[in-house]
Write a structure and sequence with these properties.
alpha+beta; eight-stranded antiparallel β-sheet; two-stranded antiparallel sheet; 8 helices; elongated
């Protein structure tokens, strides 16, 4: 048996990824399922780069952030533990100072905003013709992997920070979500340039702009310019703004993957 170093985390809710998430890389293998995360690193890789533990920990947090942006659901992720699994099956544990648990708390009445009922369509022979749950999980995992891959790119870091802040500061949520649009406009010098580079359109971005700027909302950007009584944004309006922000982030992640092919269209 090959000697390996194993990292483990726990998280709640246990079905946060809905189905098992697996990722096999040159340096380590990763599995997320049923409230547990495990990363397996060949000892030879770890011995050459002890900082790989922190790198993987940051990647795990980015994967969870990706799922959170897709679902706007709360989660708790523990600090990791690690040990060396020896060829004879014995475990050599590493003693280290306890780290804080990573916790993200959402201030929302309903957490699963915008999640529709799943649809499974089969033919007379039970062959699957359409499976919305499988499609949704595949898209979430693709988004989470892209976010983890590019988490240190400057614009991505800025957009992640804005989305996190929108959760921590719900009274100004739309202001922070709009910062994602502004980050892309600044990156490409203008909104038209951004659309050209990302393969998006003005209509794709319209919901976030209208909800953040034009409606008399307490969470909006121009509260002082709206005459009359301000109201709270509805869950549908917040869901639409969040979804548009997520699609903007996704479009930019796809652009980073292939900047010469602005063919990605928002779904």
């Amino acid at each position: 048996m090959q000697e390996v170093v194993i990292m483990e985390w726990t998280y709640t809710p246990g079905d946060y990824f809905e189905e098992k998430f697996e990722q096999f890389q040159d340096r380590f293998n990763l599995e997320i399922d049923n409230g547990k995360v495990q990363a397996v690193i060949p000892a030879s890789v770890f011995d050459k780069n002890n900082s790989i533990l922190e790198e993987i920990d940051e990647q795990i947090k980015a994967l969870f952030m990706g799922i959170m942006i897709c679902t706007h659901n709360d989660y708790k992720l523990s600090a990791y533990t690690d040990y060396r699994l020896l060829p004879d099956g014995k475990k050599a544990y590493t003693l280290r100072a306890q780290k804080a648990v990573f916790k993200l708390t959402l201030h929302a009445v309903e957490l699963r905003l915008g999640v529709k009922e799943d649809v499974l369509i089969t033919d007379s022979e039970d062959k699957v013709l359409a499976d919305s749950k499988a499609d949704r999980i595949r898209e979430m995992q693709e988004f989470a992997k892209l976010l983890a891959k590019h988490k240190n790119e400057s614009v991505v870091k800025s957009m992640i920070s804005s989305y996190e802040t929108s959760i921590k500061d719900p009274a100004n949520e739309l202001i922070h979500l709009y910062e994602i649009k502004e980050a892309l406009k600044e990156k490409f010098w203008s909104e038209p340039n951004a659309h050209k580079s990302l393969g998006t359109s003005k209509e794709d971005w319209r919901p976030l702009g209208e909800i953040s700027n034009d409606l008399p909302l307490k969470e909006g950007r121009h509260r002082g310019k709206n005459l009359g009584v301000l109201r709270n944004a509805t869950k549908e309006e917040l869901g639409s703004a969040r979804q548009t922000a997520k699609l903007m982030i996704h479009a930019y992640l796809k652009y980073i993957e292939d900047p010469q092919n602005p063919s990605y269209k928002l779904k």
